[in-house]
Amino acid sequence: QSVLTQPPSASGTPGQRVTISCSGSNSNIGSNTVNWYQQLPGSAPKLLIYVNDQRPSGVPDRFSGSKSGTSASLAISGLQSEDEADYYCATWADTLSGPFVFGAGTKVTVL
Amino acid sequence: QITLKESGPTLVKPTQTLTLTCHFSGFSLSTDGVGVGWIRQSPEKALEWLALIYWDDDERYNPSLRSRLTITKDTSRNQVGLTMTNMDPMDTATYYCVHGVRRRHCSGGRCYYFDYWGQGTLVTVSS
Question: Which residues of A91-103 are buried (b: 16+ CB within 10 A; e: fewer)?
Fold first, then answer.
C-alpha cells in the first residue's frame, strides 16, 4: 500500500489532454517537492518532471507538472501514441529517516 | 553522458545474501551534491527505494529494510555496492542503480532526486 495515491489507469485519444493525480499528506507531498517518472514497456523508469514542475532537457513541453498542498498532478497535452506508459509520482517522506516513496503508478492508454 | 549499469547474480537462494554492484560513468561521486542509490521494482511493478549514498559518505536507508541493507562506494573505481541479507522470495525484483542530484537552494539528505537510471538487473529468489 503506497502512501501516495494515484489512479490505476487513465486513457485518452490522440491529441487529448490527460491528467494524472497524486495524493499524499503533509508528511510527504505537503513538505517536499514531487517528481514524476515515465516507464515505457520493457524499459527503466525515466525522469519526466522534477521539483514539482521542472522538465529535464529533452522532455517535450506537452508534459507539465504542478503541486498544490498535499497533491500533485501530471498533465499530458496533445496525447501521442508513444505516451502509452506507466507514470509514477515520487517524493520524500518527511520523517527523520524518511524514505523516498513512490505512488503505485498509473497506466496511461492511448485509445 | 551519465550511465549506470548494475551487475550481480540473477538467482539467489532464500536466506542468502545478495551483493550487487553499480558501475557508473560520466560523473564523480566525490562531487558536491551527487549521490548514487538503489531502487527496486517488483514483478507487480511497484517501485521501492532502498538506499542512497552521498558524495560526502553519508548514507540513507529505507527504514523498513534498514537492518538488511548496506550501501558502499568506491569513488576511485566509480562503483557503488549494495548488500541485502536474508533474501526472501518476496525480494524478487528488478534492481536499479540511480544517479541522485541535489536540487538547487536546498540542503539536506532529502533534497535529492533521481535523474538517471541503469537498465536494471532482475534478481530471482528461489530455492
Answer: bbbeeeebbbbbb
